[in-house]
Amino acid sequence: MKKALITCAIVGGLLASYPALSTDQAASDKSAGKGGYHHAQQKLKVVEDLYAGFFNRHDISVAQKLIVENYKQHNPFVGDGIKPFLDFFSQTFKDNPQYSAKIYRSAVNGDLVYVHVKYQNNPQDRGTASVDIYRVNDQGKITEHWDVNQDVPEKSANDNTMF
């Protein structure tokens, strides 16, 4: 019994001192990076605003406000810089006037914002599942982007959805 209590005390002490599990706000803020939780939420809001205004309302000015001029793109189908990004999506929106994007999940780690998204050309389209990763600077501007995309299949080997 005494051994079990000592083990519990040691494990409890270790868990309490681990910043990611701590309820201490200062430790949480430190582990979340400069500015803590609120700073992370501001970075997430930048990306959410891009989706609401640009990808769903097709308002080019939203992207112009949120993305830096020398934006670095890791998608092999879009060039670096804001102009190739705007050109690519302006054509996409023209070809698909009902184009939309829905964020299902999100996470922030430092200056990186991760979103799990369903893109659709129109409501009848099964769509594309994507994980987009954005680097957002301290001025609230998107500076870099990575993505991994997968078409939503007609049939699945399991009963789980992609979202």
Describe the protein.
The protein is of the alpha+beta class. Helices cover 40% and strands 28% of the residues. It has five helices and five strands; from the N terminus they run H-H-H-H-E-H-E-E-E-E. A five-stranded mixed beta sheet has the order 1-5-4-3-2. The protein is globular, with a radius of gyration of 20 Å. The model is unreliable at 1-33 (pLDDT under 50).
Essential attributes:
alpha+beta, five-stranded mixed sheet, 40% helix, 28% strand
Short description:
With 163 residues, the protein is α+β, with helices and mostly antiparallel strands. The protein contains five helices and five strands, in the order ααααβαββββ.
Write the layout of secondary structure elements.
Blueprint: H1 2-17, H2 25-31, H3 36-56, H4 60-66, E1 67-73, H5 82-95, E2 100-109, E3 112-120, E4 128-136, E5 142-151
Helix pairs in contact: 3-4
Order of secondary-structure elements: HHHHEHEEEE
Number of strands: 5
* Class by alpha and beta content: alpha+beta
What are the segments in which pLDDT stays under 50 over at least 5 consecutive residues?
1-33
The tally of helices reads: 5
Task: Compute the CA-based radius of gyration.
Answer: 20 Å
